[in-house]
């Protein structure tokens, strides 16, 4: 028997070096209207599935075993179309790598750049 769509949970990740800290909020679906994160400690909100979540009125169609069987293909098509986007993960990796690389600059790098 197919299962009902399970709720997803947003994840908050932090990356830190000696002098900096980055906060990433990683979410599967954009379930809410985007708001400014300026007044928070969150640096980046990353949406890893670039599509809308199934609305509650559509999820109602999956409430009984019979309707789950009836709409199984439709739900399967939605899941297949809702792919994770590697560019979002790559953005997080790049930001983290920049922070890691900036942790302990070598003397040669400092002399080359003229700052640290």
TrEMBL record:
List the InterPro entries hit by this protein, alphabetically. Restrct_endonuc_II_Bpu10I
GO MF terms listed in the record are: endonuclease activity
List the keywords (alphabetical). Answer: Endonuclease, Hydrolase, Nuclease
Pfam families found in the cross-reference section: RE_Bpu10I
Q: Under which name does UniProt file this protein?
A: Restriction endonuclease, type II, Bpu10I
């Amino acid at each position: 028997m197919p299962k009902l769509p399970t709720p997803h949970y947003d994840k908050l990740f932090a990356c830190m070096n000696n002098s900096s800290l980055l906060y990433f909020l990683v979410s599967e679906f954009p379930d809410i209207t985007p708001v400014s994160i300026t007044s928070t400690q969150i640096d980046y909100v990353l949406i890893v599935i670039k599509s809308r979540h199934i609305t509650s009125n559509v999820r109602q169609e999956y409430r009984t075993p019979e309707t789950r069987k009836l709409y199984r293909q439709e739900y399967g098509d939605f899941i297949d179309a809702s792919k994770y986007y590697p560019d979002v993960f790559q953005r997080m990796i790049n930001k983290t790598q920049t922070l890691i690389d900036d942790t302990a600059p070598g003397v040669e790098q400092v002399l080359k750049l003229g700052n640290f």
